[in-house]
Structure formats: C-alpha cells, structure tokens
Amino acid sequence: MSCHTDFTRFMNELKTESDTLRILIEILKKEESALIEGKLEEIDRLASNKIKLIRELIQHDDDRNVFFLKIGLPSERKSIDSWLNELAVQNSSFSEIKALWKELLNLAKTAQQFTHSNGLIIANRLQHNLRCFAALHGATGNVALYGPKGQTYI
User: Fold this and answer.
1) Cα dihedral angle (84, 96, 27, 51), rounded to 10 degrees?
2) What is the mean pLDDT of residues 101-110?
3) DSSP secondary structure of 84-144
4) What pLDDT digit, counting tens, does each position of 39-78 carry?
5) Domain residue spans of the chain
6) Spatial separation of the C-alpha atoms in residues 29 and 98, rounded to whole Å
7) Who contacts 103 (Cβ-Cβ below 8 Å, separation ≥6)?
8) Gap between the Cα atoms of 100 and 148, Å rounded
9) Which of 55, 70, 84, 120 could form a disulfide with 98 if both were Cys (CB 3.0 to 4.6 A apart)?
10) Best CA proximity match to 125, nearest among 38, 32, 57
11) What percent of the chain has pLDDT over 70?
C-alpha cells in the first residue's frame, strides 16, 4: 500500500470520526435538555445511542493509533502536532490533514464540555433528591428504610 493511500485513508478516518463526534455532541445537547426537563425515557434512549457512538469513537481511536504505530509516530498529541506541522511544510496538499486534526480536537473538547455540564446537572439532581429523601425520612419519625441487600440507609 502506498504512502499516499495511507494518508488518504487516514484523512477519511479523521472525517468519519469528526462526523461521529458531531452526532455525539447533538445527543449530548439533547441529553442536557432532557436532564433539565426531567424526561427520563428520553434520557434512557439517548444513553443507548450515546453508548453506540462512544464504541465507534473508541474504534476510530484504535484505528488511528494503529496508523501512528505503522508510521513510527508516538500517539501523543505533541508528537502528532509536530508531525502534522512538518507534513504540511513538506507538502501543502497535506495541510488538509492538519486542519481535520485540529477540527477533531475542537469537537472532542466540545463533547467533553457537554459531558462535564451534564454530569453537573446529574449531580445537582442527585443532591436535590437526597435532600428531599432526607426530609421525607425525617418527617416519618426516622422509620428505618432498607436497601436491596437488606442494609439500612438514611
């Protein structure tokens, strides 16, 4: 397989991975709305879709790491950035790969921000529910409640 074919395949892989990340970001946005509105069925459906996309992204990451290993490049961001800069200087037609890589990193950062934000919403809801549960527990005269393993809680 020629070097040009490898780079073309790598470029197509970056495009596909970016498309997958865009879909994930849309799901994360919908998840944020569902969390805020308390739509549990919607959250379950979105979680299922999200898991599928995350599996795809893991496969893309594995494929990318195989490519980097094949060309003798450590799969560290600093090494990749340096390699892409050199590649773009050597041949301007490879500057598209550098742009695709930068776009991929930006999309990953956006997905990470939404994931963090959704985690904060979940934590906030959990704290609210625990406070409500504690208030109800106090109002019942400290009746012991039992978990699924028969242990008391709250």
Assistant:
1) -50
2) 97
3) HHHHHHH-GGGHHHHHHHHHHHHHHHHHHHHHHHHHHHHHHHHHHHHHHHHHHHHHTTS--
4) 989 999 999 999 999 999 999 999 999 999 999 999 899 9
5) 3-153
6) 27
7) 18
8) 50
9) 84
10) 38
11) 89
Phi, psi of 76 (to 5 degrees): -105, 145
The yes-or-no verdict on residue 143 having pLDDT over 70 is no
| Torsion of Cα atoms, 33 then 37 then 43 then 49, to 10° | -20
15: left (phi over 0), alpha (psi -120 to 50) or beta: alpha
Q: What are 145's two structure tokens?
A: 């409640």
Burial class (CB within 10 angstroms; exposed 0-12, middle 13-18, buried 19+) of 34:
buried
Q: 32: closest CA among 115, 151, 135?
A: 115
Q: Residue 1 — pLDDT band, cuts 50, 70, 90?
A: very low
Give the ranges where 38-94 is alpha helix by DSSP (H).
40-70, 77-90
Q: How do beta strands 145-146 and 152-153 pair? A: antiparallel
CB 9 within 8 A of CB 99: no
What is the Cα–Cα distance from 96 to 88, expressed in whole angstroms? 8
Other C-beta atoms lying within 10 Å of the C-beta of residue 117: 15
